[in-house]
Every structure is written in structure tokens, then in C-alpha cells.
Amino acid sequence: MADKDKDMDPLALTEELFAFLQGKVPEGYKIKRRHVPRLTEDQAWTVIWYCANLGRLDVFDDSIERCDVCGTLYNRNSSGDCLDYGRAPYSFCDNCMDTEQWYKKARRNPDKNLRPEPR
Ligand SMILES: [Zn+2]
Q1: What are 10-36's pLDDT values in tens digits?
Q2: Cα distance between residue 48 and residue 34, in whole Å
Q3: How many Å apart are CA 44 and CA 18, to the nearest integer?
Q4: Are 41 and 23 in contact (CB under 8 A)?
């Protein structure tokens, strides 16, 4: 990691890695074509999730989530919602909050005080 990257937003860094794992080499780097990873979106996200959540490599910010509805990456400290109970979907970016999927899940929140008002 270059020094300038230390000041980069964790969401931007994660988006860059997410794209890299799918074959998009960051500007200024040269990597042999056959060495460039070409994972699917889901495989790339699994690598990032593993690094951030299993805590074996303490270099990733685990506040970056991937929306289970549209696939967008977002920082849960400043946007979106994470409803970590029941079945998927769990993660919702700002654009997917207040959708029917979010509402149905949020209505089942084990903490009654956090459930949205009936529509
Ligand atoms: Zn979304």
C-alpha cells in the first residue's frame, strides 16, 4: 500500500480492491495478464468479507458492507442499514432502504422498538 492510500476513504479502498479482484488493475500498476484475478462479483466480495470479518488479517475496515439487494458497497457507519437477524437479505444500502424488502425485514426486528411503523 502506497503512503497516499493511508488517507483514502475505507469505502474507496474497498471498492478498488473489489474491482481489482474482478480484473480491473488500478492505474499506475502493471501486472501480467495471466496474474490478474478474475473473480465474479460474489467471489470478490467473499474474499473481502473473509479478510474483514474473520479478523485474521487486520488490514480491512469491517464497516464496509455490500448491499444484499443491489450489490453496491457502502460504509455502514455513515449510510445504509444492517439487519443482522433471520434470513438474508441482511445489508441494505441507502438506495435500498425503505424498499419493500427492507420494510418486510425491518418489521421482523427482534427489538420491537426498532421496527418501522406499519404502512
Ligand atoms: Zn442497495
Answers
A1: 899 899 999 999 999 999 999 999 999
A2: 21
A3: 6
A4: no
